[in-house]
Structure prediction request, 378 residues.
Amino acid sequence: MHLALNASELGRLRGGNESYLWGLLDGLAGVAQVEDVRVSLVTSGEGAGQVRAEPRLAAFGLHDAGTYRRLPFLLWQQTVLLRRIRPDWYVSTFFLPPAVPCRAAVLVHDLSFHAHPEYFPRAIGLYMRLLTGLAVRRAEVVLALSEFTRDEIARFYPAAANKTEILYPGVGREFTAEAGPAADAAADAAADAGVLAGLGLEQPYLLAVGNIHPRKNLARLLAAWQRLRAAGRDVPSMVWVGQRRWESGPLLDRARAAGVCLPGFVATEQLPALYRGAEALAYPSLYEGFGLPPLEAMACGTPVLAAATTSLPEAVGDAAVLADPASVEALAEGLARVLFDTGLRRDLRARGLARAAQFSWERTARHLIEILGGCAQP
Prediction:
């Protein structure tokens, strides 16, 4: 099988979309030769250099479409390259070019722009609904990150229900409870401390990871954290890691005034140290297609508080404290449990490590190959 992937998201600081793509590429690098799959990547100038710098991806064909230009890239650059590459399958995230000279699959992370258009600027929500709808209708296979997202696809695009498959994400090998072998424990602890110091962070701290975006529900998390502090609890400081998005300015001003540390976007290679150094991860998102940060935190041995809605219970299983994300009181109670209940923290660490071990990018890559390879010729 010759598999081409739209890798134009790479290098654009797109949060979960980009993290998923990097993980999938890493998984394919581990299994492609064994599965007799040739991989080609359609990249833009921003990501092409990053791919070239990854020795593990050296066997992949790299086809650089030049500097990313949103509409031209979507409307013709991919089609031109695909006619040259001539793959069996093209896998793209959310959108497909208007002409695809091969079989096509579209990967849908979530449908928040359908379910909650109020989270998005009107123009962005409109083009997401329009272009994703076209891609879902035209794709031979639709890939969903969870059962919840598969159900959402069936809700908004009923005709696509019978061609939708679940492709769970993986957890990168870098997310571990220990930075390296036990013999290097002192050096690894020093390396982690260096990462935290470089970001201006001091322990102990409560961590939140994700774009600063309305659906991440950070306003209620801030209120819950402040409620615990006002009650006299010995609450650690709070750190929000993520790229700021639309309508985040007033919230960031409030968080800054309350003493929240805001390092902004953090490179993936720094995240394991951040997870390992945290007292807990809080992930109170109102809507998720899967929710990878909780599993990454679990893999690092960090207790997790997550929202009891959408895909998050499916992602974390029984390995996290779940709370109603619409209730500041429920979030405060969940934070108190995950921060101060010593026995529960120990139990969450053990369950979290076991849960995260069930997800790997090589397993994701093998499942993708299995799904595409199992499709009968149209």
Observations:
- The domain at 182-356 is CATH 3.40.50.2000 (Rossmann fold).
